[in-house]
């Protein structure tokens, strides 16, 4: 029986993989996100949204205080118009 020598005996088989990972960590750059001025304005919200939010808050306050009254005839009229037109 003949045994051939195939390289260094005390070599770590994962050494190349570790070296590749270290090299990738050294060369990798960080990601950056840039938001345009138009996107910033859209995130702030429009005038309509602020007015709508103010109206919702006003209605909440009226409901909680008991000042808000529902007109049943007007509700029925709107429902009828919605379903028949």
TrEMBL record:
Residues 31-80 form the Anti-sigma-28 factor FlgM C-terminal domain. GO terms for biological process: bacterial-type flagellum organization; negative regulation of DNA-templated transcription. SUPFAM superfamilies: Anti-sigma factor FlgM. Gene3D superfamilies: Anti-sigma-28 factor FlgM. Transmembrane segments: none annotated. The keyword Repressor applies. Keywords: Bacterial flagellum biogenesis, Cell projection, Cilium, Flagellum, Repressor, Transcription, Transcription regulation. Pfam families: FlgM. NCBIfam families: FlgM_jcvi (TIGR03824). Belongs to the FlgM family. This is Negative regulator of flagellin synthesis. It comes from Schinkia azotoformans LMG 9581.
């Amino acid at each position: 029986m003949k045994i051939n020598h195939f390289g260094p005996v005390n070599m770590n088989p994962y050494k190349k993989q570790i070296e590749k990972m270290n090299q990738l960590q050294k060369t990798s750059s960080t990601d950056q996100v840039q938001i345009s001025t138009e996107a910033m304005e859209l995130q702030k919200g429009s005038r309509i949204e602020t007015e709508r939010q103010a109206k919702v808050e006003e209605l909440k306050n009226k409901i909680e205080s008991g000042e808000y009254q529902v007109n049943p005839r007007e509700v029925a009229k709107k429902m009828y118009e919605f379903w028949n037109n």
